[in-house]
Amino acid sequence: MLQKMMFATLLSFIVTIALGKFIIPYLRKLKLGQKVREDGPSTHLKKSGTPTMGGVMFILSTLLVSLLISPWNKDFFVLLLGFLGFGSIGFADDFLKVYFKRPLGLRAREKLLSQFLLAFIISWFVKENVGTDIIVPFFKSSIDLANFYVPFALFIIVGTANSVNLTDGLDGLAAGVSAIVMSFFAMIGLFLNNGVYGIFSASLVGGLIGFLRYNRYPAEVFMGDTGSLAIGGAIATVALLTKLPLILPILGLIYVLEALSVILQVFSFKLFGKRIFKMSPLHHHFELSGWKEEKVVYSFWLLTLLSLFVSFYSLS
């Protein structure tokens, strides 16, 4: 299976690189450029007009490669549901923003309702087919959530998807962090001798690395909500299928810190009229503190890599 996973990673990498040669010029032709927020770091204003919705590149490559190489079973199709379903929500949001010029894209209630509906379907499937027990890192034990499983899973899925979305704010940040996170699940699939988890995860790793060819600083294309929500949906779904949702706060530490920085900033400003960070999400705080964009990205990659090793240790 290791050979299949390596082949899936390489093939998805190559397909994504090839797709970029056609998709990026097409996105430019359609004038699907990102509108950069004016209240963000001034250094980002030059990025205005950079094609967005580039997540379709690694979505297509991951879909193609996993369909060709992975076994097909119920777990495989629920993984695709999490990946493509959340990607479709992101695509609709991006399309409304950049094509129909609706600044906020999908309305908040529309986005959340569709996310929770999709998350409920995934949660119910996992509950009925995989079970309600989850592994507790560091303790070499598991707990059965029973009737609390579905609400818990809803929180994990929607929370992870939106946390990845918040992380996608610097060139190469979300793609690099997520490639490391999915590498963990690829290895878990290998340890479990589960071709579905291993090959799907490996395919997404290859697609994300290929995407970095165009998304690293200075980015030629952004993944948009299309890509970030798809990644978040995939991560949450594979975590639930492998009974490892509690590993996400460790493995996805960057996602947690990014989301937490936004929550703390909002609460602090509303309650006390003061901001904790120069700007949220957290990566912007470091930028405004004088860090170069590449330094922030590489530091966050490194922290995720350390989180990966801690995650493996917690299960040993």
Note down, in words, how this protein is organized.
With 316 residues, this protein is mainly α. It has one domain (2-246). It has helices at 2-29, 55-69, 74-98, 108-129, 149-167, 173-191, 195-215, 224-241, 248-251, 253-272, 282-288, 293-315, and strands at residues 133-136, 141-144. A two-stranded antiparallel ribbon has the order 1-2. A hairpin with a 4-residue loop joins strand 1 (133-136) and strand 2. The longest helix is centred in the N-terminal third of the chain and has 28 residues, at 2-29. The model has no long low-confidence stretch (mean pLDDT 94).
Return the string of H and E elements. Answer: HHHHEEHHHHHHHH
Describe the biggest sheet? Answer: 2 strands, antiparallel
**Tally of alpha and pi helices:** 12
Q: What oligomeric state best describes the polypeptide chains here? A: single chain
Quick structural gist:
This protein has helices at residues 2-29, 55-69, 74-98, 108-129, 149-167, 173-191, 195-215, 224-241, 248-251, 253-272, 282-288, 293-315, and strands spanning 133-136, 141-144. The protein is mostly helical.
